[in-house]
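Exercise 3.2. Students should predict the tertiary structure of the chain below and write it as structure tokens, then compare their answer with the key that follows.

Predict this chain's 3D structure.
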Amino acid sequence: MQIAVVDYGMGNLRSVVKAIEHVAPDGAHVMLTDAPEVILDSERVIFPGQGAAAQCMAALHERNLPSALREAAQTRPFLGICLGMQVLLEHSEENGGTDLLGCFPGQVRRFRPQSKALKVPQMGWNQLHQTQAHPLFDGIRQDAHFYFVHSYYSDPAEAHLQVASADYGLTYCAALADGYVFAIQAHPEKSAEDGLRLLANFTRWSGPH
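Answer key:
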């Protein structure tokens, strides 16, 4: 089994690769790649993300990755992490407005907390409240703590896409899933045992049946 971790030149991706290598089944091959053909030759795809939406989309276009990512998300198990979740929607408020991959209808909005006690970005541990059952949640207790770092949150237009929520001045979509896609705002590679369990579940999940 080949697992592609998408490399578009932004963020520290080694922690994601190391975490996947740690939990993947014996014989799995984890590849950090920016090649569309390698992504489409892989049985599973992980799209991690850090940084700003406009820079991310520019980097994806430079590498001719958008169409490969859209195809991968429709045809094989696909995991989006942090910014890798947000870019699956249509549009972000970030950078004065940025068009995204458009795999799902919805917007990415900036936190505007009313309380001065809530700083932006949200940085640290927060509870992940499962709103729908999903195979990637197997063995993860309700309201488990995951590690978050983000100033923007996903607001999918279709309620059924949300499988988990979190609270930070408002209740927002912290994970979405549909078909072969599972995407999470938190960083499972930084979320101790529960995060590693989610990644392990992904490496064994074959998608919808």
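Discussion points: Residues 2-204 form a domain with the Rossmann fold fold (CATH 3.40.50.880). The chain has a mean pLDDT of 94.
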